[in-house]
Amino acid sequence: MLKIGILGAGAMGEEHSKCYSSINKGTAITPLLHSKIQLYGICDYRKEAATKLANKFKIKKVYTDPHKLIDEVDMIDICLPTKLHPKFTIEAAQKGKHILCEKPIALTLKEAEGMIQTAKKAKVKFMVAQVVRFWPEYITLKDIIDSGELGELIFITMNRDIALPVWSDKNWLLDNSQSGGVVTDLHIHDIDFTNFLIGKPVSVYSTGIRLDCRQACNNKGLYTQVSTTLKYPGKIAYVESNFLMPKGYELGNYVKAVCKNGFIEINNKAKHTLTVQKPGKKFTYPKLPKKDGYIAEIEYFINCILKNKEPKIVTPEDAKFALELVLKAKESLDTGRCLKLKS
Ligand SMILES: NC(=O)c1ccc[n+]([C@@H]2O[C@H](COP(=O)([O-])OP(=O)(O)OC[C@H]3O[C@@H](n4cnc5c(N)ncnc54)[C@H](O)[C@@H]3O)[C@@H](O)[C@H]2O)c1
């Protein structure tokens, strides 16, 4: 039985708890997966937050000390503020525990490299939850493009929109030094997906907005909107993300991929979330895998542990490269320069 513990009982701690609870109810595609895992404990220094989730999702034990929970499980699922990812990933790896860590891997490349090397040395499985790589519409879009049925990709536009994230503990998300603002926190989803779909760009150019949102967060100059152009040989990607939608607006994501022989659209607010059109033909709506991306990524990681296989869909190096690109985006935004990447 794989004993699992969650660190952090905030927004993502709740989302992940819901996923394990769903797997425990037998929703996993892998036969009998629920009989092989146990969501053993949840930890938050706000005891009431951990207790609330433990009661809601029938989690056996509540902790306020992360070290104690790490000691008692086989796998740790890190849903803590980003600045804490390196510290607890490294501690868990050194204690021989497998680690699923929320994105972004870290705030600096040096920390990310330290996490990767420690996990390698300890021979534990380590995956960063770049969830878009598991999302049904995005996987299907990639499968269609990779199959070549629409011809070569020419350009792709990706958008991700949310209202100012005011839910986080002590508003850490609204502090550039703790979250990196919209660039490191939200933009990384689609930047990582362009890496997955197309590979390494030759240049990165970003423009964006830093907003004085002191009224909301007592923090001057938060990165709230960013638009990045990534150039590749023969193709281009335009990625835009923002924290500026009206209060109450639910996450929106939109993709338009234009290929030589057709286009694909993702719109999470439309009746058909994935649409394909070939020249002169009507729209088609490909059948999508039924599974939610969060459940899919968690199930995948658990299977990697149980089968002793290294996670391949997203490697720690992929997560580090996504961080490298968003840091380039931030540098471009700050300097106004288009940054070339070494080939
Ligand atoms: N994949 C996604 O779609 C997605 C969405 C949102 C956030 N995230 C990522 O998930 C991570 C968590 O974000 P969130 O929105 O859940 O934040 P959050 O603030 O809602 O939750 C973090 C929790 O950690 C707890 N905590 C903080 N320091 C602690 C410590 N030292 N010991 C124990 N508990 C501590 C807080 O009390 C809080 O409950 C971040 O890295 C974020 O970027 C991912």
Structural notes for this entry:
There is one protein chain. The chain starts with a strand and ends with a strand. The mean pLDDT is 95. Helix content is 37%, strand content 27%. The strands form two sheets. An eight-stranded mixed β-sheet has the order 13-12-11-7-10-9-8-14. The chain has a six-stranded parallel β-sheet with strand order 3-2-1-4-5-6, with helices on both faces. Helix 4 runs parallel beside helix 5 (109-122). The chain is built from eleven helices and 14 strands. A hairpin with a 2-residue loop joins strand 11 (252-259) and strand 12. The protein has two domains: 2-129, 3-Layer(aba) Sandwich (Rossmann fold); 132-291 and 314-340, Dihydrodipicolinate Reductase, domain 2 (2-Layer Sandwich), CATH 3.30.360.10. By secondary structure, it is of the alpha/beta class. It has helices spanning 11-24, 47-57, 66-72, 85-94, 109-122, 136-147, 176-179, 181-197, 214-217, 293-306, 316-335; strands spanning 2-7, 37-43, 61-63, 75-78, 98-102, 126-129, 153-163, 203-211, 222-232, 235-245, 252-259, 262-267, 274-277, 339-340. The protein binds nicotinamide-adenine-dinucleotide (NAD).
